[in-house]
Protein 1
Amino acid sequence: MTQRDKEKQKLIARIKRIRGQVDSIERLLTADDDCADILMLLANIRGGINGLMAEVLEDHIRHHLGEGSPELTAELSEDLIDLVRAYLK
């Protein structure tokens, strides 16, 4: 399995965790459960989505923007990735 395939599998695992959390929210809402539990799960999902978005953007910057643009140096790519990660926190 290539490094790229391993990265893809990690992203898919993240999506499955997020899907499970969304399913849990549906169950909690159906059961008329505590709002605090629902809010906590919603916050977890938001964090998971932000993390997933950061990973996909990082991959895009490294593999698509960086390789095709002589102006986008490795250092500038890393600065851009740091900026994106800071924004998504």
Protein 2
Amino acid sequence: MTNPVRMKTFDVTIPVLNEEPTLARQVEQLHAFLKTHFPTEGQWQIVIADNGSTDRTLEIAQELSNRIPEVTFVKVPRRGVGLALKTSWGQSKADIVGYMDLDLATDLPHFLEAYRAIAEEDYDVVYASRLHPKSKVVNRPFKREVASRVFNLLLKTYLGVGFSDGMCGFKWLKREVYPELHEAGAQNDGWFFSTELLTTAEWLNKRIYELPVKWTDDVSSSRVEILPLAKRYINSMIELKKRRP
């Protein structure tokens, strides 16, 4: 008789910056989904990582934490998505850590696939890919699509990586492998940290699962400016390559 797979605990981190209008609604939607599919008490929590908000975001996060047992928050000392994730994961005790964007652009049922890939199939890292042939991308502006493909081509050419989408905000990993990835170069305080996770996982020969997804672009909530971001990413690629083991 085979032993049943042990239930894995997990933390879902949501990095936020000035998200007062939508924070409560989106977190409540995510909470309802997770509560339906993972009803066991104490198995999981949602971590709101506030990285420098100047509106009522932190206050709303505190209110949600007081009202909903599975919601907590961390206050990050300065802005930066990578810094927010490192702060959250650095204090986590869960088996699985990961993050998704507040706009829930990746359809929530994909989380069930990501969980199974790590908890049952023993993958080390799971990432969503909008560029997988089976993915369905909705409402994405043409210039963002082109920028994404160019960026990922640069990654493949310059860093020699094989993953298809380094920028998608939906990634999960065994918490036990995170210190290895950090040591190997996943250290950026900004958005590039998300790409560093996959790059260092490849360098260390971790088991990586590519997840095709349905992904809906929320153009109204985006603050991304492509050219300044591209310059930062190219500089970050150069710095990351210097750290290759």
Protein 3
Amino acid sequence: MAKIEHVFFDLDHTLWDFEKNSDLAFQKVFEKQNITIDLDKFLEVYKPLNLEFWRLYREEKITKSELRYSRLKNTFDAIDFEISDEVIDMIAIEYIDFLPHFNHLFDGTFEILDYLKDKYNLHIITNGFEEIQAKKMESSKILDYFDVIVTSESVGVKKPNPRVFEFALEKANANANNSIMIGDSIEADIYGAINSGIKAIHCNFEKEAIENSDFESITALHELKQYL
């Protein structure tokens, strides 16, 4: 890793604790909307559906508005909770409004960013929605660590499309040989980077079994010190 000058991070599920912050945002929305439903039951169904709809969104098979509506509609249908489309649309809007105001980060985020900031140029590449990613980083007080922030919406395609990584390299005045990508998604972050000629480290915080991997993995952010 001696040649590395630029470190690109994913945001959600890598530095910013999306699951914890998302749960809190839904709790606030349901309280505001007086939705009498067991939140844990809702989230148990919602989370795998959300991942599936994000996959479709990443593959350009659904639009952003379809993602935001369908993941909620399908969840409510699955748990037999009757709710109008009007309220679903309101939940979708308020969820996005509330989400960036919760600021939980993964353990070791500030420690590793402080460790890296004087040695490398730090950047963000995220598939998250354009209108809230900077707000998330500002709320959690990590925005100033990063020189370049690239969202998929600003490029017009999503990770793992090589155009996202090419755009980020150009904007950061970097090249593939002196850069590394760190993220949680094997498909979007790791192979997206590797297929663009960029080294990558997988954040496997759930310690899931990975067979025949051809990339490095960490289970906590402080482990990055072994490589950088």
